[in-house]
Design a protein that fits this description.
With 297 residues, the chain is mostly helical. The chain is built from ten helices and two strands. Strands 1-2 form a two-stranded antiparallel ribbon.
Length: 297
């Protein structure tokens, strides 16, 4: 009679590395988000910093994501593919900021397709797979435009902080619940470490974070959401975070890599760290648009 396989213990070592990485990354991200748009009196002296920290963060992020995508999808022409993806994505942002009317952001979104086509043609010339290179533009540009749009709208800080809080909370709660409670696997084929308990823990974490941010920012020009709608935003953001994480696992399985890179200790590459955020940015931006139109009143 064979003995049963021992249960996997909670990975305290990996958790410690994740916490250390977050302790460095979170303050930098929060500062970049708040730069130039601070309204809380103790921090008003930072106002003259302007939007440069945020723009630098976005530009650096796009560059690192493009390099990692090039390494996975076009290893024979990684740098050339990455440069073209960066130019295509930043061109969309340039179009969005070139105009100040209502057409600015729709035109920026439309620019994704020609940018993807140009990168696909270049990949074909490089001897790489055009669809993979083109998808890199779409995969990166969409979330970048969604995040930048959120920050350009009224009450940008509360909405942007809401996005990051929901994503981080969903990710952390999914990790903790999945490791502590274990249970049935969510998708054994593509991500054997993810469980249904982690999935539902992530949803609960996202909803709790959205409600908490809504309550905390209510007196500081916050998003002015009802708690019911805030919980829906948290649920949508949590679902998107889980979907983004799973999608990244599917992509890595397709390209035969364990991690997208080795930039962040405990996480792998930047794509491994922001996979959920990329999908959540689209979900929260959609919720912001619904709220702006008035459907959530």
């Amino acid at each position: 009679m064979t003995s049963s396989r021992p249960a996997r213990r909670f990975d305290w070592t990996n958790l410690g590395i994740r916490v250390a990485s977050a302790a460095v990354l979170i303050p930098a991200v929060v500062f970049a988000i708040l730069s130039g748009k601070l309204w809380i009196p103790p921090f008003q002296w930072l106002g003259p910093v302007g939007d440069w920290p945020f723009l630098m963060m976005v530009t650096a992020g796009v560059a690192m994501l493009a390099v990692e995508w090039g390494g996975m999808s076009a290893p024979g022409a990684q740098n050339r593919t990455a440069v073209l993806i960066v130019l295509a994505v930043l061109a969309c942002l340039f179009v969005a900021n070139l105009r100040s009317d209502a057409l600015a952001w729709p035109l920026a979104w439309l620019c994704i397709l020609p940018g993807a086509l140009i990168v696909a043609l270049a990949a074909w010339r490089f001897g790489e797979r055009p669809p993979d290179a083109a998808f890199g533009v779409i995969y990166i540009a969409g979330p970048v435009l969604a995040l930048s749009w959120l920050r350009s709208m009224p009450n940008p800080i509360s909405w942007t902080i809401l996005l990051f809080a929901v994503t981080w909370s969903a990710d952390i709660c999914a990790f903790l619940a999945g490791n502590a409670l274990k249970g049935p696997k969510l998708s054994p084929r593509y991500s054997p470490n993810k469980t249904w308990t982690g999935f539902f823990g992530g949803l609960a974490g996202g909803m709790a974070a959205a409600v908490a941010i809504t309550l905390v920012t209510a007196d500081f020009h916050g998003a002015r959401l009802t708690l019911e709608f805030a919980s829906v935003v948290g649920l949508a953001g949590g679902l998107a975070t889980m979907a983004g994480d799973l999608w990244e696992s599917i992509l890595k399985r397709r390209y035969g890599v364990k991690d997208s890179g080795d930039l962040i200790p405990g996480h792998g590459g930047l794509l491994d760290r922001v996979d959920g955020l990329m999908f959540a940015a689209l979900a929260v931006a959609g919720a912001r648009l619904i709220h702006q139109i008035g459907w959530a009143q």
